[in-house]
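Record type: monomer structure entry
Structure origin: computed from sequence
Chain ID: A
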Amino acid sequence: MQQPTVHAPGGDLLRADGVVTGKGGLLQQRLELIEDLWQTVLRSECPAEQSERVLRLKQLSDPVALEGRDGDSTSQAIVDLITAMDLAEAIAAARAFSLYFQLINIVEQRIEEDGYLDSLLPSRSQPQNQGQPFDPFAPPLASQTDPATFGELFERLRRLNVPPAQIESLLQELDIRLVFTAHPTEIVRHTVRRKQRRVANLLQRLQSDSLPNSQEQEVLRQQLEEEIRLWWRTDELHQFKPTVLDEVDSTLHHFQQVLFDAMPQMRRRLTSALSRHYPDVRFPQAAFCTFGSWVGSDRDGNPSVTPEITWQTACYQRQLMLERYIRSVQDLRNQLSISMQWSQVAPALLESLEMDRLRFPEIYEDRAARYRLEPYRLKLSYVLERLQLTLLRNNQLSEAGWQTPQEVASQGIDRLQVGETLHYMAVDEFRSDLELIRNSLVSTELSCEQLETLLNQVHIFGFSLASLDIRQESTRHSDAIDELTRYLELPRPYGEMDEAERVDWLHRELQTRRPLVPTGVDWSAATAETMAVFGMLRRLQQEFGQRICNSYVISMSHTGSDLLEVLLLAKEAGLVDPTAHHASLLVVPLFETVEDLQRAPEVMKELFESPLYRQLLPLIGGQRLPLQELMLGYSDSNKDSGFLSSNWEIHQAQMALQELASRHSVALRLFHGRGGSVSRGGGPAYQAILAQPSGTLQGRIKITEQGEVLASKYSLPELALYNLETMTTAVVQNSLVTNQLDATPSWNQLMTRLAGHSREHYRALVHDNPDLVPFFQQVTPIEEISKLQISSRPARRKTGAKDLSSLRAIPWVFGWTQSRFLLPSWFGFGTALATEVKDDPEQLDLLRRLHQRWPFFRMLISKVEMTLSKVDLDLAHHYMTSLGASENREAFERIFRTIADEYELTRSLVLDITGQSRLLGADQALQLSVDLRNRTIVPLGFLQVALLKRLRDQNRQPPMSEAPGMEEDRRTYSRSELLRGALLTLNGIAAGMRNTG
């Protein structure tokens, strides 16, 4: 196996006495505890022989313990050991290694948290501030790519003499939106996530420096062991296929457990750092960082997301917020016990109490005597009543459904004789009540941090928690309009028009006042669904306000008519009024393929030059510029043309679109559809944001956060704060950089050539080789992935289709990752570099300079380097020889040799460019982590191959008995049992790789 020799990391992490320090050292220290706990649990939960075989498997995969042994003999020893296992033992081994990796993940998350907390200590930045002159030779802002906290960034900017006015102007426009999405390959159950959090908390307490004695340490260790044993006895896999609402609940779990409380803390840290370094700069708006969600609203290829599901999702989100606010207001009422005998009260608050007395006579009769001299408690009693009425009404609306008329859905509270007036109609009314209380406190020189926290939460989350983005594929709209025009018997149906005719017809229809869609028509199921979505959207905005859902993403956008079609359907539902120049829906094109990314500036130019279209864009900022949001897709462009070509086309598209928007005085918000894997735009968010072209952010960015990324970033409070804070500082830093590196003509020409060579080589293998699809289907666990009970969305867009075009990008990446090829994240990169260097050897020096100076190119190299370090071609070859059909052996060997040659070429050139002797040589902590995972994940790969082989043999013939012992010991296993075993290995490898899709 291609495992690097494990050694103590070098550089500044290795002291003279041989002790490893820094993150790598912490990982090594804490790993000893994890290893001990893991082995203890295995020996207590498994039969002795079984646990020893699992431990032997782990030992066989450790190149340190087996240094000097032949790799082939080691692999054969692993295969022999696994072959001797029956299914039950193989499943136990898979579960054991999965548990091991998840424990390592928890330890690494805790180390990241600790590092973040250390960065907040005054001693961290104090020495820099005392008597040290500004270094004129320090790297420019564009080259400082280490993640920075607010304090570190503002200190850096002050030393660079960035004017306060420039900082203030940017902060007032700051608009960061994180959109949570369900992941078709997210495989950790909600139940297991809770256990992981408990283990993390116990580990934190056990590793704390404040434990007084060894007895308390032993007690905590026993509790930790007990918690891990409970985890061991918990089923990792879903017993049922999750519904969309299950995914909603799982995603919102991060808000409930972490983000509600983390967001006000982040604002406090920002304002504190700003006060220290830029005391005269106004603070940004409270909601400078907000959240969106696709869960329950993304219907592209997911028939389970119906209008009713989206309505229920919105109601559920509001329910969670109202329940949270009710608890907060109850706590606040307990705290604000201020008496009028000892404190003044603002007249405005007293006036509001008089109005509340008339509107809520029952509350007044019940509470006035108790709170006669405690006006804040009395006011909060009225606020509490209004929140509870709002919650009651919300639950009734959820049960009634979106098609029930508004007045009928509210009849349940008529008995209260309040009609529609006493519940909170909008979050602004709730916020006004809270601000009335705050203003009264401030007028008497009092403050209340708990009230400020609640107000921050109201600003950020409102009643809706997260905005729901609707997403639908472009042809659904054109098909609906084509059916409509055929029903109306137009001289030329919409489907027969060319693009120019479509745009002209859509413009005319948008400007007419008469309805276009007749009522009472029996449309096809697809068209009826499409039109119902817009009707539901109208009802959503009427009930929840525009904030709940005001973005409509059009996947596979190709032309201007794709956007105008949505505007026309929205107009028919009452969401767009061209005569009043008003639209309550922002139409967002998603450019996904390479051709669409190249064509995007031309498409948007035609729309920006249309007065009708521009008038329907919302106005933002101090200059009141029209806002256009554009989404860039990493997944399909990568599957289409490979990693390098995809990233370069997206980079070029951003520059061209920003230049176009500036020419037309349009504010641009770029929406990055990033996934967890490198091939889908994943990787460290800080470096990715800094690598965006200069001038394209301007304080605005929108990013998807998916699946395992949510769990790794937002499962622990301080870890969530670290990711949120560093993402914000990256946006600020990038927005202040005004270099011309991205516009250097010779660099762009070089990148265009590299992208072309890479795309050509990638497509020759992936799209032009007829043996590639059978190779992928047989050699990777893609078919088993499609059976995994992890998502409400199918793995393929077209039911029954087995071709590459129908396969979703996420399972495509997942299959290559499981089998340790990781092909979509690097293939073609080496050939592109080699072609350039072969033509001109001096180009290697230029590539090294680009790596040093250009954030975009440095980000590309960094991602490829990290991916290459996780590739294991020996294990991948075992997948191929064991799972590939014998009749395909020769063709598959040719494909494998092509992949192996490209790997060696890419690895060699990446090391030449970085100047390192080993992959990840410049990041010792990451190198140690990857080395650890690489060597420990090997047994899971062999286990997966063995289980997949047995499963596929069972699929080809009746269930067979299998066991290594005597005939009477042989047992027959069902296909479902074998599938379950295979799926458990998927779980473990995903946990170990940390990049599922």
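Annotation 1: The first strand starts at residue 175 and ends at 181.
Annotation 2: The two ends are 24 Å apart (CA to CA).
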